[in-house]
């Protein structure tokens, strides 16, 4: 009997036998996850963030030295690299002490102020293996700072996740929203109005659940959600998931095997959206990425 059971397992595959999905489907999720982890390690990924410096109006000194308005505490960094000058809706950069940096890959050596941010453009700045850009979050303007040789990238061993289970790939229907805007609050306590794509309806264990969906203008729709695993096996502030845009009848799917951590799970220097109250599911979603680190 054991011999025949082994043959069945060998023929069907462990995943198929135990309802985890076909080998092809499992491999597709594994490939998606591998790309996700590789993207995190790239220069524009989240693992190398080592600073977020909010600017005050006027001159903001920048360097590792004591007394700088924006201080990056790293011995390899200059004591005083230069100034960010925040005037009106623009930010200018001025070199100091003959320092040389690159702005959009063009070397800047002089001490003349250069516009690096306005309402139309944000220029990338580099010094050695450090890179930064000015960002705006509602009424706050700051510097998103990266170390392209960050230890967090060198030491990255991947993200733990639940076993792939095709039972978490669910048919869903997107119904038209009652209102066009969805209010989303971030970790700074700022609330912004996002384009409301509608309300997603789906069933788990014969019970219907809903999630409000955001349309960010890309090829997919975006959801910020929480569930009963949050703060236990998954990130406490919730997770993200992308879903295909629906067909003409509103039919789509939500695959929780592709639920992923927000940037704040990897760095303290990100400003992540939080799930709205209606997107905090009263069910454990044991699929997708588990918690990472201690952020």
Task: Provide an overview of this structure.
The chain has 295 residues and is mainly beta. The chain is 13% helix and 36% strand. The protein has a six-stranded antiparallel beta sheet with strand order 1-11-10-9-6-7, with no helix packed on it. The N terminus is likely disordered.
Topology:
Layout: H1 2-12, H2 14-17, H3 23-40, E1 49-54, E2 58-63, E3 70-71, E4 82-87, E5 90-95, E6 101-103, E7 106-108, E8 114-117, E9 125-127, E10 130-137, E11 140-147, H4 151-154, E12 169-175, E13 181-185, E14 191-204, E15 207-214, E16 220-225, E17 239-244, E18 251-255
Parallel strand pairs: 2-3
Antiparallel strand pairs: 1-11, 2-4, 4-5, 5-8, 6-7, 6-9, 9-10, 10-11, 12-14, 12-18, 13-14, 14-15, 16-17
Summarize model confidence as the mean pLDDT. 91
Structural class: mainly beta
What is the CA–CA distance across the termini? 50 Å
Largest sheet: 6 strands, antiparallel
Q: State the domain count.
A: 2
Rg, alpha carbons: 23 Å
N-to-C SSE series?
HHHEEEEEEEEEEEHEEEEEEE
Helical proportion? 10-25%
Number of helices: 4
* Poorly predicted segments: 1-19
Please report the total strand number as a whole number: 18
Q: Reading side by side through the largest sheet, how are the strands ordered?
A: 1-11-10-9-6-7
Give the percentage of residues in beta strands.
Answer: 35-45%
Shape: elongated
């Amino acid at each position: 009997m054991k011999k025949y059971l082994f043959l069945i397992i060998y023929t069907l595959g462990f995943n198929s036998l135990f309802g985890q999905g076909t080998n092809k489907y499992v491999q597709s999720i594994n490939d998606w996850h591998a790309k996700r982890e590789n993207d995190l390690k790239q220069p524009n990924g989240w693992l190398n963030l080592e600073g977020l410096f909010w600017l005050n109006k006027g001159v903001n000194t920048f360097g590792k030295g004591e007394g700088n308005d924006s201080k990056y505490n790293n011995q390899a960094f200059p004591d005083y690299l230069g100034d960010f000058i925040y005037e009106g809706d623009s930010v200018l950069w001025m070199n100091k002490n003959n320092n040389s940096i690159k702005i959009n890959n063009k070397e800047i050596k002089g001490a003349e102020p250069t516009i690096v941010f306005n309402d139309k453009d944000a220029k990338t700045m580099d010094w050695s293996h450090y890179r930064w850009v000015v960002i705006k979050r509602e009424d706050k303007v700051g510097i998103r700072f990266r170390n392209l040789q960050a230890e967090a990238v060198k030491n990255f061993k991947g993200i733990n996740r639940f076993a792939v289970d095709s039972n978490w790939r669910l048919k869903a229907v997107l119904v038209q929203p009652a209102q066009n805007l969805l209010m989303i609050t971030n970790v700074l306590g700022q609330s912004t109005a996002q384009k409301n794509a509608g309300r997603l309806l789906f069933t788990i264990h014969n019970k219907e659940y809903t999630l409000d969906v955001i349309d960010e203008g890309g090829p997919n729709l975006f959801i910020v959600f929480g569930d009963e695993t949050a703060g236990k096996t998954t990130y406490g502030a919730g997770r993200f998931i992308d879903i295909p845009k629906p067909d003409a009848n509103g039919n789509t799917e939500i695959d929780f095997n592709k639920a992923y951590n927000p940037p704040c799970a990897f760095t303290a220097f990100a400003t992540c959206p939080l799930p709205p109250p209606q997107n905090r599911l009263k069910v454990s979603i044991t699929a997708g990425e588990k918690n990472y680190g201690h952020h």
